[in-house]
Amino acid sequence: MSWQKAIDEMNEKKRIARQMGGPAKIAQQHAKGRLTVRERIDHMLDDGSFHEIGTLAGKATYDSKNDLKSFVPSSVVTGFGKVDSREVCILANDFTIKGGSTDDAAMHKQDYIERMAIARKMPLVCLYEGAGGSVTEGGDAQIVPVNFGWAALTEQMYTAPLVAANLGTAAGWIAVQAAFCHFNVMTKSAEMFVAGPPLVKRALDIDIDKHTLGDYKVHVYESGVVDNVAEDEEDAFRQIRQFLSYLPQNVWHQPPRMDTGDDPNRREEELISIVPEDPVKSFNVRKMIKLIADKDSTFEIAQHYGKSVVTMLARIDGYPVAIMSNDSRFYGGATDVPGAEKMLKFIDLADTFHIPTIYMMDVPGFMIGPDAERTGPERKAVRVHAAMHQSTVPWASIIVRRCFGVAGSGLGPYNNMLLRYSWPSGKWGSLPTAGGALAEFRREIEAAADPEAKRLELEALLKKRSSPLRSAVNFGLFGLEDIIDPRDTRAVLVEFVRQAQEVTRTQVGRKFRGMRP
Questions:
Q1: At a CB cut-off of 8 Å and minimum separation 6, what does 294 contact?
Q2: CATH code for the domain of 176
C-alpha cells in the first residue's frame, strides 16, 4: 500500500496555502503599498530560518470520489524562526484571505503558537492586519466566547518579550490585541480601531474615514495605544529588531551585553554647560542622554506621547539600561497623566526583564491646574510611585536640574539601594522657588508696602538657599550620595551598571507581580 495519494493532497494544500488569497488579492495588497503575510515574515526573520506550523489548517471541500476539490487556508500564518540569530515565535494575519478576519482555524493556530512561546520561553512577534471577527463565522449567533488567546498573552507578558506591529487595517479584537505587548509600532499607512466606519455610522451616525478614525496620528500622538510610528514596513521590522536587542530571551536570563566599542571613560565637555542657568529655559534632553550613553545605542519609546517624559533603552559599557528623563520643552517638564502612564509601563518593562534603571531628573512636579485635575493626576501619581517601589532592579537617579513636589519625591524605589546624585545645577524642595515663595509667604507679601518688591526679595533669598552645595551640606548629604561634575556622569554610571549585573544575576526569573500592557 502506498500513501502517495495522501502525500499529493498534503503537498497540494501546502501549495495553495503558499499562494494565500490568489494572484488578484496579492495584487490588491501590493497596490496599497503593503507586503503579503509571507513577504512580511521573510523580511522580519533571518533568511531561511522560518519553520511554519499549521500550514494545512483551513477549510477543504471534496468531490464524490473524495478527491480534493478546493482548499481555503486559514487567515493567520504561524511558526518560529530567528531574529538576529535568536529563536522567536511568530504569528501574522493574512489580509488576502477574507480580509484577515478570524476563523476557527486561525484562532486555534494563534492559541497554539502563543502557548508554544510560553512553553519554550521564546519571544513572540505579532504582525497584525485583519478585520477581527466575522458575522459569517460560526453559523448562528452565539455568546462571545472567553478569549483564551488573551490569557496566553497575559502570561507571555511576564515570561518573554512580546512585540507587535500594525501594518494595515486592524479592527475589533485584532486592534485591541495589538496593544497587548511590551512594545508596538504601526506604519504611517496603517489604521486601527475597535469598530470601523460602517459600525461608527450605524451606532453614532458619524461619517468618518479609516485614517481619521484611527491612523498613527491618533494612536501614536494622542491615545498612546501604539508606542512608535514607522515610515514603512521595513522600518517597523527594524524597530522590532532593535527593541528585542536590549531584552533577554526570557526572564530567566539577564539582558545581553554588546560590545559597542565606546570608551567607558569617555568624558564629554559639552555636558558642563548643557543645562542653562536660567531655570525657565529648556535644553535638549535627548542630546544629554546620548552624550552619556554608548554612542549610537539609544532607542526611544513613545516619543510622541506624554511628551514631558522621555523614555529610552540604551547601552552603557555595552549593558542595556532603561533611561528616563523630563523634557522641559513640554509643560516645563511637569509630569502629566500621559507622561505618568508612559513612566509606569517603562518602569514595569525594565523591572520585568532585569534592566538597570537610570532617572535623569528635571521635574518641577506633577502638572497642575483645572485641566490637569480633570485627568486624575493623583491616581496616576500613586500608580507611578507604586511601580517604582515594587521595582527590584538597581536604580541610579541624577538630579540634573529640578526635583520638586510629589513627582520630585519619585527618585526611585525606597526599599532598594537607590543611588542618588546631583549636578551643581540641581535644585530640590517641596515647591519651586517662584511659586513656593508666593504660596508660603502670601500674607507677608500682601502686607508689604511694595508687594512685588517683597516677592522678588524673598525669591532671591530662597534661590540662594536652594544651592545644591548649601542644602546638601546642611543635610550632611543624607539621602544624596554626592554632587558630581556633569562630565563625570558617564564614569559614575558605568560603575553603577557594572555593579548592577551582580544584583540582576540573582534576580532572574518571574517577578512577584506580572507586567500588564
A1: 260, 262, 314, 315, 316, 317, 318
A2: 3.90.226.10
22 and 170, same structural domain?
Answer: yes
| Burial zone of 233 (CB within 10 Å; 0-12 exposed, 13-18 middle, 19+ buried) | buried
Q: Residue 143 CB: number of other CB atoms within 10 A?
A: 5
3-state SS, residue 393: coil
Dist CA 206 CA 200 (whole Å): 6
Domain assignment present for 442: no
Q: Is residue 512 part of a domain?
A: no
Q: How far is CA 262 from CA 295, 390, 486, in A?
A: 6, 33, 18
Assess whether 204 and 293 both reside in one domain: no
Q: Averaged over 384-388, what is the pLDDT?
A: 90
Closest CA to 192 of 207, 179, 180: 179
pLDDT in the model for residue 474: 47
Asked if residue 406 belongs to a domain, the reply is yes
340 and 480 share a domain? yes
CA 245 remoteness from chain centre: 14
Boundary (domain end) residue, out of 205, 231, 246: 246
Q: How large is the C-alpha radius of gyration of the chain?
A: 27
What is the biggest distance separating any 2 CA atoms in the chain, rounded to whole angstroms? 111
Q: Are 432 and 364 in contact (CB under 8 A)?
A: yes
Share of the chain above pLDDT 70, in %: 87
Task: Provide the number of structural domains found in the chain.
Answer: 2
Q: Establish if 517 belongs to a structural domain.
A: no
Segment 182-203, tens digit of pLDDT: 999 999 999 999 998 999 989 9
- Give CA 490 to chain center in angstroms: 25
Closest residue by Cα to residue 417 from 339, 475, 361, 499 = 499
Are residues 102 and 133 located together in one domain of the fold? yes
- Structural domain containing residue 288: 269-430+467-504
Exposed/middle/buried for residue 140 (C-beta within 10 Å: 0-12, 13-18, 19+): exposed
Residue with cell 496620528: 217
Same domain, 205 and 273: no
Output the nine-digit C-alpha cell for 49: 530560518
Q: Do 404 and 477 sit in the same domain of this protein?
A: yes
d(CA 435, CA 432): 6
Q: Looking at the structure, do residues 342 and 213 belong to the same domain, yes or no?
A: no
| pTM attached to this predicted model | 0.90
Q: What is the pLDDT of residue 409?
A: 81
Average pLDDT over residues 337-354: 96
Reading the block at residue 473, the C-alpha cell is 551640606
CA distance 441 to 436: 8
CB 247 within 8 A of CB 84: no
